[in-house]
Amino acid sequence: MSGSLGDSSTDEGEDIRGLDLVAPDDLRERLAAAELSGAVVGYAPRIDYDELGMRTVITRVLARESCVEDVAMDLRGRNVSDVYVVTGEYNIVAIGRFVGEGAFDAFLSRLATDDRVLSVTATVTLDTVCEYDTVGFLEE
Q1: Domain 55-124, architecture per CATH
Q2: Which of 7, 32, 42, 140 has its CA 20 to 30 A from that of 98?
Q3: Is the pLDDT of residue 14 over 60?
Q4: Above 80 in pLDDT, residue 20?
């Protein structure tokens, strides 16, 4: 380990001056409270999907109003990690990860031929800027 205890940078050379750091005891208490309340259930690894050759695709679906919940439930599966029922022009948003065009094409074809689905658009992400953010959970 380089530097002294008073050094203001990490081993990777990142400058940490000015960051709002949380004391370890405070962090442990917050995590313990979140686990007890059920807000945090287990822990999962952070996966670099780009490194695995997977493309992240954001799919927006307009389903018939009476079928929104069923279509959303049917989207859960092997390639879809997140499904949200939303407001706006589309009523479902799904985040999927696909290796190769075949799996992605099959996914879209299935949606396009589903009688409950009125419209589908998909956007392939170019770069992951932020993923798995705690969204202020650990901040005071």
Answers
A1: 2-Layer Sandwich (3.30)
A2: 42
A3: no
A4: no
